[in-house]
Every structure is written in C-alpha cells, then in structure tokens.
C-alpha cells in the first residue's frame, strides 16, 4: 500500500466545514482502489485501521470461539471538499470477508459504493456485490481498464449477475476525469433510485 | 521498509492509552464526524490529547485523526470522547438523513444535489 505517512504536510479543511459524507470503493487486492482515491482526492491518500476485539459484538459472534482474535481491517481514504460546508470522504476497502463484520460500524450511512473490478478477476468481486445487495447499499460497478480480454459489457453483467438497473462503467482508475465520471454516475444513480422510490411511495 | 507504527503495537499499549477502556462513553462519533478544538493544550495533558487539540484547530474528521495518531479508529474515538466530555472539542456530525422508505438506504435529495454540484465544479 503506497499511501503516505501521516507526518506529511496536511491540507486543512475550511473552518466552515461541518458535514462529512462517505462513499466506499470496494474491490479485490491490486484492482486500483487506492489509485482511484488518489486520482480524485484533495489530499494524498491516508491509511488507518479498525480493530474489533470484543466477544459477541455486532454480527461477529465469537461465543463459540475459544480464542478471541482481533478482526483488523485496514483501509485508505482521501477527501474532496464539495463546498464550504460539505466534505466527501472516499474510502478504499478490501472486500474480503472480515471487512464486512465491520461494515456497519465504519460505513453506516454511506451514500453508496463503487465496486471496482478487473475483467480478468471478476470472481473477486462476487462477495462484495452480494454483501452490498444484502446491506441495501446502492452501488455502481466500474471496470478498471487494464487492457485485458475484451469482454463485452453484457458478458461482464452476466458474470457478475448484475441487476439490469445497476450501472456498469469502464474507467481508468489513474485518471482524474474518469474517477470524477464514476463518482458522478454513482450520484446520478442514487438520484434516479430516490426518484423511483418517491414515485412508489406517492399515493 | 519499516512497518507503520501502531499497526502491530502491543495491545497493552493501546489498553494503557485508554486506561483500560475498549469502548467510548458515547457512540456518536462517525468516521467522518468533524472534530474542532475549543481550547489549547495545557501542561500535563496526555500526549495524544495534545496532538488531537493541535490537529483539530481546523475541522478534522475522526478518520483523519486516527490516521495522524496512527491508532485504530475505536481507540481514537475513546480519546476524542474524553475531550468532548470535558468541552475541549466540539463535534460536527454528518447531517445526512437517510431515506428509509424503500428497501434501499438512499440519501436525501438535497445532499445528492450538493454532491453532484460539488463534483462537477470542484473536481
């Protein structure tokens, strides 16, 4: 992981900043999560971790496990100041199993997620997509273009068993413009979901 | 490469830092709650508290405090709740009101509009 150490010069937020928002980028190792965070972030990505050591807490029932071992999840993050009050934090997190034990503690209230996939290793993201669906967290899927086998969008959708409503995008995680487009697509997807929900709720 | 300090720290050290507590007194800190120092450090203060008061002269998210201190988020929250209880910091919590009408948890339209405008103009 090539995020910076914390001692580097910090870019402080505006004194008026008072509302933090979250978007999570999930995907397998080496798929480009940190790269994407870096290409859109106002700061160089930082890294931290959360550790859960208590028995029987949350969904991680350890009562049957004689030796309590800590669940530790490390993640990178960056941020974008959207206006003088609003700051969007982007978290790059591995989609492995233990990560989801901490999802509610870390990412409750997240706006939505970006599942970053590598066409050559699509199966790596099955679990993440499954968990997001289970949690009811809206998401888009972004294919990081590694110049791999030219699968069609339809083939990728089929391999991921994607709901037809979930946007599938192609991007280059190193590109700021591409990262911006993925974020905008997620926000627009959230808007259309909200509009559809309103229609259903209307009498 | 030297491993990042904190990552493989002896749990005893973390235990000492928080005087044995593993949970904060308050559950209100979110990862992106913005913390603002309301006073300057004073002599005799725990060094982590001093560091927090210094870095929070401008609003700083809990997760950034955690990264700067090189301490896990949960330990950071305990240290922050000490400072919050004594009025040395204030907390600006996320204001999204999740729309829970449907099956999916969706943010409110005002927040979404701000996100889109911000992304289009700032990025």
TrEMBL record, chain B:
<protein>
    <submittedName>
        <fullName>DUF742 domain-containing protein</fullName>
    </submittedName>
</protein>
<dbReference type="Pfam" id="PF05331">
    <property type="entry name" value="DUF742"/>
</dbReference>
<feature type="region of interest" description="Disordered">
    <location>
        <begin position="1"/>
        <end position="22"/>
    </location>
</feature>
<dbReference type="InterPro" id="IPR007995">
    <property type="entry name" value="DUF742"/>
</dbReference>
<feature type="compositionally biased region" description="Basic and acidic residues">
    <location>
        <begin position="1"/>
        <end position="13"/>
    </location>
</feature>
């Amino acid at each position: 992981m090539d995020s910076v150490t914390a001692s580097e010069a910090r870019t402080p937020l505006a004194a008026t900043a008072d509302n933090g928002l979250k978007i999570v980028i999930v995907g397998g190792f080496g798929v480009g999560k940190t790269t994407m965070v870096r290409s859109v972030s106002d700061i160089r990505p930082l890294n931290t971790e959360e550790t859960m050591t208590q028995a029987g807490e949350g969904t991680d029932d350890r009562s049957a496990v004689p030796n309590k071992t800590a669940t530790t999840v490390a993640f990178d993050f960056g941020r974008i100041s959207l206006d003088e009050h609003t700051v969007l934090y982007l978290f790059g997190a591995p989609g492995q199993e233990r990560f989801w034990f901490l999802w509610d503690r870390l990412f409750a209230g997240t706006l939505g997620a970006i599942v970053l996939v590598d066409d050559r290793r699509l199966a790596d993201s099955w679990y993440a997509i499954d968990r997001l669906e289970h949690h009811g967290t809206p998401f888009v899927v972004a294919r990081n273009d590694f110049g791999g086998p030219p699968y069609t969008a339809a083939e990728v959708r089929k391999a991921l068993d994607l709901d037809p409503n979930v946007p599938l995008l192609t991007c280059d995680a190193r590109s700021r413009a591409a990262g911006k487009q993925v974020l905008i697509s997620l926000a627009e997807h959230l808007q259309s979901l909200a509009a559809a929900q309103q229609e259903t709720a209307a009498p | 490469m030297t491993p990042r300090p904190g990552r493989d720290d002896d749990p005893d050290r973390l235990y000492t830092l928080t005087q044995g507590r593993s949970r904060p007194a308050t559950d209100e800190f979110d990862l992106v709650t913005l913390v603002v120092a309301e006073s300057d450090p004073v002599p005799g203060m725990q060094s982590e508290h001093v560091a927090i008061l210094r870095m929070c002269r401008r609003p700083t998210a809990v997760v950034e405090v955690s990264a700067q201190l090189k301490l896990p988020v949960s330990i950071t929250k305990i240290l922050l709740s000490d400072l919050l209880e004594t009025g040395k910091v204030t907390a600006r919590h996320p204001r999204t009101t999740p729309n829970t009408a449907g099956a999916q948890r969706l943010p409110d339209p005002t927040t979404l509009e701000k996100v889109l405008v911000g992304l289009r103009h700032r990025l």
